Records
---
Amino acid sequence: MKDKRFKRTLVTTALPYANGPVHIGHLAGVYVPADIYTRYLRSLGEDVIMIGGSDEHGVPITIKAQKEGVTPQDIVDRYHNIIKSSMEGLGISFDVYSRTTSATHRQMASEFFRTLYDKGEFIERTTSQLYDEQADQWLADRYVIGTCPHCGFERAYGDQCEHCGTSLNATDLIDPHSAITGNVPVLRETKHWYMPLDKWEPALREWILEGHKEWRANVYGQCKSWLDEHLQPRAVTRDLNWGIPVPIEGAEGKVLYVWFDAPIGYISNTKELLPDTWEQYWKSSDTRIINFIGKDNIVFHCLIFPAMLMAHGGYQLPENVPANEFLNLEGEKISTSRNWAVWLNEYLEDFPGKADVLRYVLTANAPETKDNDFTWRDFQARNNNELVAILGNFVNRALVLVNKYCGGVLPERGELAEVDKAVLDEVAGYRERIGDLIETFHLRDALKEVMNLARAGNKYLADTEPWKVVKTDAARVDTIMNIAMQIVANLSIAIEPFMPFSAARLCEMLLIEPMKWPQLGGDNLLPVGHKVSDNPGLLFVKVEDAEIEAQEQRLQRIKQENIINSWRPAPVAPAIDFNDFLKLDIRVGTVKACERVKKADKLLQLTLDDGAGERTIVSGIARYYDPQELVGKQVCFIANLPPRVFKGIESRGMILSAEDADGRLVVIGPAGAVRPGVSVK
C-alpha cells in the first residue's frame, strides 16, 4: 500500500439482491476483483477488511415471494444462505457477510434517515402514483407491465424495458396494467420525502471531476454525464409493506427506498463486525475506502451515496470506485429473469474442486474497460491451454524432476550460469510489477504477469535441459533444480490472491507454510535440504469435452424455453374480402417421393399425387424434415399458384405449414386419410 496517508483500508462489495443466487456476471463485476485486491493487501500485511452482505429489501423480493406464495422473509432467508455458502465455496474471503434485515442494520438505517430528517435535508412532495384498486396497494415500478414506448415490447416493466434496455417510468408505458391483478391501475396522490441531490451537485462535481481524475474512464465518464445534465431530487421513501419503516410521524405504510437503505448496509455490517471500532473505518481520514461495484451501480455509489454521507456529516468518502463493465454469456446479455446465466452454486456442484478455474477465467476475461463474453469453450481452452499446460505443467515438471534427480530434497546451488542469473533477475521484478497492477486495479494484466512467471519457469527448464545435463554434470543439475524450485515457491505467493485454493495446494506439495507478498521475488525461499512431497499429484486437470457439452446443452434448453415462454401470436393481418379467400384452391396431396435440392440447405423437392396426376413442389422445410419421413404423408397445398423456379426446378404450388414458437415449421395435413385431390374448405 504505497499511499502513506492511509493506515487502513475498507473494501466494500455491492450487496446482491437476495431473490436468487449469484451468477458469473456478479462475480466478474464485483466479488472476484474485490477478493483479489483484499487478499493482496492482507498478504502485504496491511490493515484491511472486506465487507459484504445481502440486500434483502426491495420490490424484486416481494414479487418473488408472491409468485411462490411465501413471505419475503422466506425468500431472503433461503437465498442469503445460498449466496453466502457459494461465496465461501469460491473463496471470496469476506470478513463479514451480513444482511439488511439484521437488527443492527435496521437501527442504523433508521437513525441515518432520522439524522438527515432532523437536519432538514429532505424535501416533501406529493405526486401521482399508480394504484391497484382491486389489490388495494400502491404499485412499485416493477409491479406495472405494459408496452415499451421505445421498441414496442409488450411486457416491459415500469422501471426498464428488458428488450431494449431503456430506463422508464411506470407512467411512460403504453396500456399499463398491474402485475398483481392484471387490472388497469389508477393514479392517486401520495406524499414522499426526497433527497435534494441538486443541493450537493457542486460538492460532488469538485470531489469527482477535479479530485478523482484517476478513476476509471467508465466511472468518471458516467458521473460527468449525470453531473452535466444536472442532478434532480430523488425519493428516499416509497409505499410498500416490505422494508424498514420510515421512522417519522405521518409516514405510516411507507418504507425506506431500497437505494437509500442498501448502501447504509456497508456501515451497519462494519459495525456488526467491529462494534467498538467500526468508526475508525468510516470516519477517520487515514482510512482508504474502496467500493467494488458493477457499472449499473456507478450512479448510486459515486453520486447518491456520497451525497447522503455529505448530508449526514462525519463520514469519509470512497477513495476509488473501480466499477467493471458487464459480462455476457455466449454472446447474450445475462438475464436472471430468463435464467440465462451460469449460477455460482450450480457451477460448484458441476465442477467440484475447480473454484480456482472459474476465478482464473473470470479474471483473465474481466470486463474492466468494456463488456466481455464468457463462453464454455473459452473456459475449457483457458483451463487446458493455460492452467494445465503452462502453470500446472511447470509445477509438475519441477516437482517430478527434483524427486527424480535429488530425492525430493532441495540441493545446493553451484556457480551460476548466465541463464540462471537472467531468470533470477526476472523473477525478482515480479513483486513490484504485479503489485503495481493490483493496486491500480488492472487485475487482468496482473494475472497475465503471474502466468508470465510460470512461463519463465517453463522456459528455464527448456533452456537448461536438466534431463540431458544429468548425464554429464550432476552438480549443474543441482543448481538447475534449486532455481526451478525457487520459482515454484514464488508462484505459491503470486497466485494466492487470484487462485487461493491452488496456492494452498501448492504449499502442500512443497510442504511449507504459506508465505507473504514481500517475500515474492526472493531466490532463497526454500532452504537447502528442504524436503518436498514425493507424491505431489497435479495442480490442475483437463476439462473434458463432455463436461462442456453438458453445459452448452443446458443453455440451449434454456434458450428454447425462453423462446417458447416469450412467444406471442403475431398480430392478425388486415381483414380481406371473403371472395379473395375463395380464390385460393387448397387441396390435399399424398407425397410419393421427396429429396433434398442440391446446393440448397433449406429446400426439399416433393412429388405429390394430387388426384389428377403428379406435380412437383419445392418447399423450404429441409431443416425440419428428413425426406423419407414425408413419403406417404398427406399434406395440404395451394394448387392454383403460378409456377416458380427454384434452383432450376419448376414448383407448382405451395405446401402449407405452421411456424411454432421456436421457429420450427410443421407441415399441415388432414387429421385422417382422404382421397388425393380433395379440396380444403
Note: The longest strand covers residues 586-596.
---
Amino acid sequence: MSAEQRRQLQQQLWNIANTLRGKMGADEFRDYILGFIFYKYLSEKIQRYADLLLEQDELKFASLDENSEEGAEIIEAVKEATVKELGYFLKPSELFHAIAKKGNNQADTHLQGEGHNFILGDLTRILKNIEQSTLGTDSADDFNNLFEDLDLTSSKLGNSEKAKNELVTKVLIHLDQIDFNLSDSTADVLGDAYEYLIGEFASGAGKKAGEFYTPQPVSILLAKLVTSQNLNLKNVYDPTCGSGSLLLRVKREAAQDYKIKIYGQELNRTTYNLARMNMILHDVHYADFDIRQENTLEHPQHRELRFDAIVANPPFSAHWGANPLFMSDDRFSVYGRLAPATKADMAFVQHMVYQLADDGIMACVLPHGVLFRGAAEGHIRQYLIEQLNCLDAVIGLPANIFYGTSIPTTVLVFKKCRKNPDDILFIDASRHFEKVKTQNKLLPEHIDKIVTAYSNRSNEPKYSHVASLADIKANDYNLNIPRYVDTFEAEDAIDLNAIAAQLTELEYASKNTDATIAAFCLELDIKPPF
C-alpha cells in the first residue's frame, strides 16, 4: 500500500469518527470508534484464518450454516483451532459484516416490520461473547472486560433507542466499506491508522491526553535510544504504558526476527483497555504481551521480572502515597529517602531502575525539575550518580512538544553496567524543532541528531558535552543542562560612534520639527506646546 493510500485510509477513519463528534467529547467518542474498528479487525482476522482452515474443503466461514448439524460441527472445530491460535472466537453470524448488513436492512432474516434491523442488542451480546470465548484459556486476561467502555445504552449516542441504533448503524456501515488489507502481512496499515487516530484524539483531548499518549516523535526517540546498541531485546517494559504506543514503537525498532515480550502497567481502566486493543490490533500474539491495570508505585505487577529495555513517559509531577512503609520496599529503601508526595517523578525512576536488568537500558521522559530540585529529590539524584553510577545521559527536549502542557522536558538514559562509568553525556536539543500550528515538533533529522550524539558520545559546541563525574560533583549533583552545555550566543558588537551619530541626527530632526510646529502656532495665534 502506498503512502497516499495509507493517508486516505487514515482520513476515511477520521471522517467516520467525526460522525460521533457532535454527540460527545473527544475522549468519549474515541472509545466508541476505536472499539468498533477493533471489532471489525477481530472479525476480519478470524474470517481470514478460518477460511484458510476450510480452504481444502472449499468452504467459506461466513457462509456456514450455524443451525445445521454439519455446520455446527465445522464451526466447533474452527473454534477450537482459532481460540488456540488467535485467542478468541466469533460465529459467522457474529462477524462485523453480518451485523453491519443487518443494520443496513440487508440481512437474510425472517423478521418483518419495524425493528428487524435493530442491532444494539446483537452488538452488545457479540462483544460479550468475544470476551467469554476466551474463558479458561491463556488469552483470558487479555480479553477480560475489553469492551466495557462501549456503552451502547448511553444517552450520548441518542435520546431514544431508535436514534442510538441509527447512529451506531451508520458508523458500522461506513466502516464495513473499508478494506483493512489484512492479507498484506508485511504492512501494518491498520496499525498505523489506529496510531494516527489515537494521536488525533490526544491532540483534541487537551491536558487529559498526557494520561494515555506520548507524541510519536518522542516515542520514536525513546525507542531508538534503547535499541541504539542492542536490537536483540528479549523484553521491554513501560510502567505507565497508556495506550501502549511507546511499547509498540520499541518493538518496531527492535530486530524483526527476534521475538520480544511486551510488559506494561496502566492505572486508568479505559486506557488499559485501549492498550490491550492496540497490542492485538498490531498483531502482537496474546502470549507475547502482558498489560496489567494497577497503580505501578503502590502495587507493581511485574516486580519479580528484570527487563532488557524500559521506556516511560510517566505523568509529570504526579501525587503518590509516599507512605513511610515504602522505606522497607527494595525499590526505595537503599536510597534512604522517598520522593515527595506531590512529585512522584523520582519514585518512578527508582521503580524503573529496580526493574532494569544488569545489562539493560532505560529511557524516560521527565520534567526539568528532576535535574535540579533539592531536598529528597536531590538526595535521590546524588545516590543514582554517586552510589549506583547508572545515569548515562541527560537530553534536553524543546518546550511545548507534549499535548496539554508547554513545559520543557528531559530524557534521562540509565544503564547499570555502563561503558563510560567516569562521565555523563549532556545533550541540549531544546532549540532543534519545527513549529507546527501551536505545537513544537521533533522532525526525523532532529531525532537522528540526538541518537547520533548519544551513540558517538562526543562534544559538539552548543549541543553536547561529556561531563566528568568530578565536574558533576563540583556542581553539587545539579544536572541543569546549561551548566554543562554552553549555548551562549554572543551578540553583535555595537558601534557606539554610529549610535552617537544617529542620536545627533534625531536631535537635529526633532528641533526642525519643533520649529515647524512653533511657526504654525504663531500663524494661528496660539501658544506652542513647548
Note: The chain has three domains: 3-202, 205-483, 495-530.
